[in-house]
Amino acid sequence: MPEPEIQPPSSKTSSRPVIGRRHRGTRSSAEDRSKPKTSPPRQGASLIGATSVSEIDSAMLDLLRRCIAMPSISGDEQPLVKLVADQASRWGFDVDLFQTDEARLAGYPAALGRHLPLSGRPTAVIALKGRAPGKTVLFNAHSDVVAVGGENRWLHGPWSGATIDGRMYGRGACDAKGPLVAGLGAMLKIRQLRGHDFAGMVALELIPGEEDCVDLGTLTSVVRGYRADAAIILEPTEGLPRCAARSGLRFEISVHGRAVHGTVKWLGIDAVRGLRYVLGALDEMESQFSQIERDGRYTDYPVLRPITVDKISGGGWQGMICDKALCAGYFELCPEDDLDTWQERFISELTDRLVAQGYPGDGIDVQFPERYRGFFTPTDASVCRAAEKMIRYSSAAERWKKWRGFNSGCEGGLRFALHRTQTLVWGPGSLEQAHRIDEFVPVQEVVDCSGAMAAAVLAYLDSEGT
Ligand SMILES: [Zn+2]
Q1: Distance 217 CA to ligand 1 centre (A)
Q2: Which domain holds residue 292?
Q3: What's the whole-model pTM score?
Q4: For a 10 Å CB count at each end of the chain, is N or C smaller?
């Protein structure tokens, strides 16, 4: 099937408005009253207010549909990465498609996390270089998606990309293929508006494995040598930029008991009962931990530090008191929480509660096979100032209240920790849809978000200093 093509790079500035839902001149008077009096920079404005879906927007949505059709469940990202890399080459961007193995990542803690082997899971870096030297902005998107959870339970097929009532459906529609395509679209829009007449570079790294082991995919790009002054992590944020993201710990709890026949159960130690105590204790700990040291960027979320069990197993031969049960899940923290401190606290609170129930204190073993750091960018950093200025002129302006943190972990912590990269999380779609049956992304939000991000990136690159 022929694909809509975007013209190759041109230094000619387009004469028509480029991106977005409506022209600035068509605003209602009520909207006009709510808008700031000052004019946005000329070029940024033309990225945010257009009357119709442009050629770029149609090409973006076509690519999104083709991306959703690729079942890129963690471990099987390669076909999707190749699809996007090929399309980016045809659009005239520089593309670096590379494969990394674990040996090259040695020495970085992220590489030590439990993860699927990296073999056959490439990374792509897609770049648009400006004519003059300057800052680098790096979009970051993950190529993998989670499993579909029963294909026959989907109303619209998980790989269909069906578009109904302005929503595009499919696994990964909002997490994170919609955001990925919005980032690529932002690069197309920057090039359409400015060609290569800007200082610095805009690039997009498409990394594997975020749903499997946070930071590992970004590490492949860091080790390849890519550095950034500012990063925009493409995840579903309802089209609003976020200035922070959570740290997190993956936990695996083994509960040990003593196996005996069920009719003489008083002689044994029941690991299944122990697991019930563990699950109850985790609920109590979640509410206790959510009351303390509140982070202002997370006060809007009902659960401040979620503890989510996603796996339980156990049992043995029928009719027995069994000697082993397991549970695993994520403990999601605030950006500035120290991982070591909270890890110790998690173990000691859990053990104390088990002992209080009469279960042996040495009856559990807790491992943390994956750890990732959050980040927090000061809201007076130039990337935040650029994003806030442009979001106020976008169709998302009425939903913009204040800076908040992204309510999840993401790939932003690694570069922030290594290079203090100013980092935002930003993309169309909502976390409320991520990982669900019938996941979707609002199509107009993909279009609008790409325009707002393009305008913010240009405002940042054009700004003085870092
Ligand atoms: Zn994601």
Answers
A1: 12
A2: 247-372
A3: 0.85
A4: N
